[in-house]
Amino acid sequence: MRKRKILAILPESIGGRLTMSSIIDGFRQNDCNVIVYDELFDKNLKQTLRRKFEYIAGYDYSGLKIKVDNNLDVPSINYFSDDLRSKTSGPEWEKYLPFLEADDNYTFYWDKILTGYENFKNINYLPHFVNFDVYQDFGIEPEFDIMFAGRLDTDYRLSFFEELITKLPQLNIAWYAIDRHYRDARERAQYPELIDLCYRGFIDNEQDMAKAINNSKILFNINAQGISSLNYRTFQAAACKRLMISDYREELALFEGHMPFYEDFSDLIFKIESYLEDKQAYQRVTEECWQIAHQSHDSKKCTRYMLKTVRG
């Protein structure tokens, strides 16, 4: 069978790079020939566009923008895990939004409620998924009790994180972010020494993120995007058989009641301490979440759905 040729755009944003990496892996797992253009490091787009490909795929508007700006006559596959009607999905979102209505542009949206708001012909709801060959349980004893990977970009997030550290001084906590976000959080923090204590550097690739998650017992979420959706970190943790405690989102229903969530700060503290103490409950929850994620949120299965949708 002839391999389908796909030009995949790896964006500059860290979240986009990680998400797009699982999509690229999924295409390859489905026997596609994937050409990757890295917007962070590759500089010769024109040369890349001279190669032969049947589809262009991107995160948010990255692929569609290249298609439109270069008048490419190929279908586009666009995965959004940001609000497509917001600058979070790209500074020129208003310019490229109308092109999503074209018959040969296919949109896959991570948030169920936001998907329902749109009426594009080719819009499809598709929650996050990960490559289980990359994200897996490495069988190591975690160094850290708690991990948070994300921006402390609001006063609420920053004060929440600082209070968590002060309330759980006996626990080893890791925070990962790019250096610019670390310096910004440190300048705004009430206790900058606590930020220094937890900061563990910057991760920009799937393999190192899988190692970092394996090296932590519990991850907690403060979802920032969407209305009902779960972020990418949720599925990374489930695949690594590490416990995720999320703030409440409707799409926690994807995990059939097995994934714990917290209602407020004191509830998060209680659940962290409870699951660290009760190893049997911890193992039961992580195993159930892994089974569900492996069945329904695996890169090979989800990209197969994308390819079938595009092919018709």
Provide the fold topology.
Blueprint (H helix, E strand, L loop, with lengths): L4 E6 L3 H16 L3 E6 L6 H5 L5 E5 L2 H8 L6 E5 L12 H4 L8 E5 L2 H6 L5 E3 L18 E6 L5 H13 L5 E4 L2 H10 L3 H7 L7 H9 L1 E5 L11 H8 L3 E5 L13 E2 L2 H13 L1 H18 L2 H13 L1
Parallel strand pairs: 1-2, 1-3, 3-4, 4-5, 5-6, 7-8, 7-9, 9-10, 10-11
Helix pairs in contact: 1-13, 7-8
How confident overall, as mean pLDDT?
Answer: 95
| Biggest beta-sheet profile | 6 strands, parallel
What share of the residues lie within helices?
A: 40-55%
Largest sheet strand order = 2-1-3-4-5-6
Helix-strand pattern = EHEHEHEHEHEEHEHHHEHEEHHH
End-to-end gap: 17 Å
Residue fraction in strands? 15-25%
Number of helices: 13
Annotated CATH architecture of the largest domain: 3-Layer(aba) Sandwich
Give the overall silhouette. globular
Briefly note the structural class of the backbone. Answer: alpha/beta
